Amino acid sequence: MTLTHEPIEGEHFIVVSDTTGESWEIVVGLEVHCELATVTKLFCGCPNMFGDEPNTNVCPVCLGLPGSLPVLNHNVVELAMRLGRALHCSVEPSIFARKNYFYPDMPKDYQVTQFDRPINADGWLDLPDGTRVGIERAHIEEDTGKNTHAGGSGRIHGADYSLVDYNRAGVPLVEIVGRPHIRHPEQAKTYIDELRAILLTTGASDAKMEEGSLRVDANVSVRRVGDTALGTRCEVKNLNSLRSLGRAIEYEARRQVDLLETGERIKQETRHWDEGAGRTRAGRSKEEAEDYRYFQEPDLVPLAPSAEWIAAIDAAMPPLPAARRDALASSAGVAVTESCVVIAVQRDLDQLALATIAAGGDGKRVLTHVEHNLSGDGAADLNPATFAQLVSLELGGQLTATQAKTVLAEMVTSGRAPDVIAAELGFEAMDSSELEGIVDGLIAESPEEWADFCTGDDKKRAKLQGFFTGKIMKATKGQADGKAVAALLEARRTATS
Amino acid sequence: MSAVPSTALEIAAAVRSGQLSALEVLNDHLARIDARDGEINAFNLVMADEARAAAVAVDAQVAAGEDPGSLAGVPLALKDNLCTRGIPTTCSSRILEGWRPPYDATVVQRVNAAGAVSIGKTNLDEFAMGSSTENSAFGPTRNPRDTGRVPGGSSGGSAAAVAAGFAPISLGSDTGGSIRQPAALCGVVGVKPTYGMVSRYGLIAFASSLDQIGPFSTTVADSALLLEAIAGHDSRDSTSIDAPAPSLLESLGQGVDGLRIGLVTELMGEGIAPDVAARVRQAADALAAAGAQIGEVSVPAAAYGLSAYYLIAPAEASSNLARYDGVRYGMRVDAPTTAEMNAATRTAGFGDEVKRRIMLGTYALSAGYYDAYYGKALKVRTLIMRDFEKAYADFDLLLTATSPTTAFKFGDKTADPLSMYLNDICTIPTNLAGHPAMSVPFGGGSDGMPVGVQLLAPALGESTMFRAAAVLEAVAPALDEVWS
Question: Whole-angstrom Cα distance, residue B451 to residue B480?
Fold first, then answer.
């Protein structure tokens, strides 16, 4: 099967079946659990810390000891609302519920969560590619402890014994349930990137997938292009990186298409991604899933944040990635979906870019540098005025693109002005007659290659173009302008043949 | 048999003034326990050593010129579902045998801070589920008035401890009548405060939205004294009312002149034994004689209280009791897999009544049944609240029987859970509404066993309720007094 990355009719990505040639659409909805960056846990005063000695950050409340009671952490509500408002959700009066099931990592054998009345409802997240992904809800819940299976097979079945660490039990989570508006594995990764940026911007979470503070489950289904009804979905778990997320969605979509094309039906179930094997495996079937017997948590009172509180959160909201991209694109005169715009915001270099443009730097050129030449430390400290000066030197022909890149790197390190650095490095615009002399000399040195260049096919010519350009650059110590060299070689070739 | 007075108020006054030592008071009560608790079985654990240390500390405070507090040197019994740091807390269940909580319940901290001397942990129906204390894993408690009869439940041990003179005051918990019914059956005072008035932190949950801790005593004034000590906001309980403890003692002498008191029609007829109903009418007459206006009032939804309660309470219990899974504390019965270990532990650790309610509650919350059972029960609960609200538009207090009968004999109702559940018919509506209510001894039944009458008040109506209770106490007939 072929996975096309190009949108069809503007918005749909498709899988084309190798066997039947039919076109299928992938439909993905993501559920993201993220740990909130509070100092203490959701319902007690224990530290919310990753990586401490097992069972040291625990107390009667988070161990669920008989008689203990939960008290809601005000800061959890604050961070959850910040995230909700950043996702354009409405903050609703909400209630907590108990989700009942037995599991050793869950101290009370029920999880306190929000069920039919979540704190944040009905928002959206705009992706850099222009897609608006609906957010059904973003609710508060408590995390579980962590099981370690030891001895025997080391897996849950067949282990000699299991150890439980309750340090994570009661850590505050927000579960962000996205609507099935994602159509491609890459788009899913972008969604997570964008969500991560929002989590970091709002200070809601450190959003580290590798430490488990951001966990993604993917609901994947497929349907024939043109169908409007959703197919039966499978929930894919155990996605520990963006790479796993993309691979798992792609694998799962192919698996489902294969099944449907052979006349089978998809069973709604939970599947686990096996990164090593590169496949998903069936877990618990939803049809025989547990009944969680949700009911209102009687140990907590309903939560109804005041209008003043919500207004204060809105007023203090920092600029979010989508708004920053809009501002930068309009200032630079480029499309908001351009990768340079996305990357500038991702690298937190949009303020630098805006200031450089304001200081007279050409928008496109500035963003090209930001995208390709400013990925390291210290870039944000560049002086916008000197950055603008560099771009002007480049556009004025005094520096080639290659030279500008070198000078820029030196500016980041030393903070000195571009003209000073250029002079020191001996970067001066090369006289065209001087370049012609060098080129003609090199042609004379390699008559066979030159003949092949003039008469060979496209492939051969492209190869020899590289051969001659390399020699010229070497001879001019990189001072020759690439475009001028190409033009000159072409002029000489036309003259020869 | 000794110079030690019988009420907490008198003991505290004597200890605070140095007339009596706390140790002397304690030893007197320990001697009574020694003499008779083998027969009564009110205590799961007598904390003699800890109590002596506490009494010595109180005496040292008095000697140093400090005031140990309003409960100075008063022996106090704690229902064994209240957490006590380092001291076994069992809920009268095998599943918690040997577990020692690492913390004190808020009420335990408060009575200790007021100078009380915790004397022991009292027996109860396992996890507070029952009306006779026959469901204890450690054997039933006997009614001190007639040891062939039950003391009521679930706080039977706390009621019996006070009735037997083992302690002048005790604490129990009331989810559907578990303080008031045993108080009535043992002939003592028992109070269920407004939901949220007393912190539940450290009370091992049965049904969280209904559970409330309250006092037992021989006098109305002692219950007022103890409730003042334990009430008031606690930041560790989210359902705790954000208000200071009420002043109750000062309202006791205010009488009932002008108060409007209603007899609840639905709780006067069918199901209430004639001798008990007669005492309720006699109590109404006594209140009228003291200046109250007595009328009859209908609380129609109260008739459905029992049905709603036996869905809501088991539903919450099925969740609250899930944590007893053998993983972290208490009993564990090993098995090849975790799920099998959970099941084996719970099968061995819980008694029949607890299992019955866990199954009832699990069923009531299950997909496909939720709306018909739990959902409907919540609606009935709302209706009961509305009906009470209407009743309290016309009346300051309501008056009913506490229990439909006097204390019954052991084994009378164990074979038929429904007949046992019917014991709580008068007490349950209060818990569903979250209101306060108390049982006051008012003479005896035709069998010579105590009858309790129940006063009900709207939320935070404790001080009015105590005024009426004090009037009833003053005019209550003796147990053996023939009723007209």
Answer: 11
Across the interface, do A162 and B338 touch by the CB < 8 Å criterion?
A: yes
What residues in A contact B235, CB-CB < 8 Å? Answer: 71
Q: What CATH fold (topology level) applies to the domain B8-306+375-475? A: Amidase signature (AS) enzymes (3.90.1300)
- Residue among B296, B285, B231 at smallest CA distance from B471: B285
- Does residue B167 sit in helix, strand or coil? coil
Question: Which residues of B are less than 8 Å from A108 in CB distance?
Answer: 322-323
Chain A, 274 to 303: residues with Cβ < 8 Å from chain B are 291, 293-295, 298-301
A401-414 helix and A384-395 helix, angle to the nearest 10 degrees: 160
How far is B375 from B3, CA to CA, in rounded Å?
57
What is the CB neighbour count within 10 angstroms for residue A473? 16
DSSP string, A348-381: T-HHHHHHHHHTT--HHHHHHHHHHH--STTGGG
The residue among B450, B406, B378 whose CA lies nearest residue B188 is: B450
Structure tokens at B356: 């019955």
**Tokens read off for B429:** 């509506």
Q: What tokens were used for A2? A: 């072929």
Å between A227 CA and nearest CA of chain B: 32
Query: Hey, are the CB atoms on A100 and B204 less than 8 Å from each other?
Result: no
A293:B319 CB<8 A: yes
* All residues at 6 or more sequence positions from B74 whose CB lies less than 8 Å from its CB, including other chains: B8, B11, B12, B15, B25, B115, B116, B117, B168, B169
A205-209, A225-229, A354-358, A375-379 — which is least confidently predicted? A375-379
> What order do you get walking across the sheet with A295-296 strand by strand?
A110-113, A97-100, A295-296
| Rounded-to-integer distance, Cα A187 and Cα B475, Å | 81
3-state secondary structure of B41: coil
CA distances from B273 to A53, B220, B415 (A): 62, 25, 21
- Mean predicted lDDT score pLDDT of chain B: 96
CB-CB neighbors (< 8 A) of A66 in chain B: 83, 89, 91, 96, 99, 101, 204-205, 323
Q: What is residue A11's three-state secondary structure?
A: coil
Side-chain half-sphere exposure of B103, counting CA atoms within 13 A: 18
Domain definitions of chain B by residue range: 8-306+375-475
DSSP category for residue B303? G
Nearest to B315 among A66, A72, A295 (CB): A295
Task: Tally Cβ neighbours within 10 Å of residue B36.
Answer: 16
Query: Which uninterrupted H or E stretch holds B86?
Result: none
Calculate the alpha carbon distances from A323 to A316, A326, B84 in Å.
15, 5, 56
Beta carbons of B318 and A100 less than 8 Å apart: yes
CB neighbour list of residue A214: distance below 8 Å, 6 or more residues apart? A32, A33, A34, A35, A192, A196, A199, A205, A207, A208
Contacts of A497 (CB under 8 A, 6+ apart): A454, A455
pLDDT in tens, A483-494: 788 888 888 888
Residue with the two structure tokens 């408590």: A142
ipTM above 0.85, yes or no: yes
Question: B67 and B18 in contact (C-beta within 8 Å)?
Answer: no
CA–CA gap between residue B203 and residue B186 (Å, rounded): 23
Tokens of A168: 């994570």
Report which residue type is found at A114.
Q
CB contact, 8 Å: A162 with chain B? yes
SS3 state at A263: coil
pLDDT band at B59 (very low <50, low <70, confident <90, very high): very high
For residue range B436-468, list pLDDT tens digits in order: 999 999 999 999 999 999 999 999 999 999 999
Residue A322 has pLDDT above 80, yes or no: yes
**Which pTM value belongs to this model?**
0.89
**Residue A60 in contact with partner chain B when CB distance is under 8 A:** yes
